[in-house]
Amino acid sequence: MLTERMREFVLDLELVVAAESRPGARAAEVAEALRGLLGSGDVLRPEHMEPAPDGYRQHVVHVDPLSRFSVVSLVWLPGQQTPVHDHVCWCVVGVLRGREEEICYELDEAGVPHQRSTSHNAPGEVCWLVPPKGDVHRVRNDGDSLAVSIHVYGADIGKLGTSINRVYPEPAGEHAHTGFPLAGD
């Protein structure tokens, strides 16, 4: 079951994906819709904001019946992070609560990731990525409280289980990840 505001957001997404087929343009339009959602009150049901002690938790909130997109909440306790990874599809991320650090990487000729940039995203901030370029990153909760972000993926995450395409070796000098997502609802 969705909140009323999430139901409206899903209807907006259905219009976007029906009207725009180019992945980059689609992600940009989804980002605008997500910005509007983040400041609108009750967005997620309480069960979609439950963390897990062993790793960040992924809750599938909605899957489009035509498999064009999925809405997922990721819930992070302080210090939890992803491995360095890339994606199977375009992705739009908005921070609902807490703070997330995103480290972006470039791959050298041998496929080894090297840090390119770091950003700190607070509530209301939205970013997106479109494979195959510029989508290698690591995300973590670098704050001292619970972080919740809403992700819109251009694939059926209910079937795939994850948006991660490949996991890369840990770059020299970085700490290993604290766990893969734990399945939610």
Automatic annotation (TrEMBL):
Family under the similarity heading: Belongs to the cysteine dioxygenase family.
Superkingdom of origin: Bacteria
Keyword match Cytoplasm: no
Keyword line: Dioxygenase, Iron, Metal-binding, Oxidoreductase, Thioether bond
Keyword Iron: yes
Binding site for Fe cation: H85, H87, H137
Protein name, UniProt field: Predicted metal-dependent enzyme of the double-stranded beta helix superfamily
Cross-linked sites for 3'-(S-cysteinyl)-tyrosine (Cys-Tyr): C91-Y153
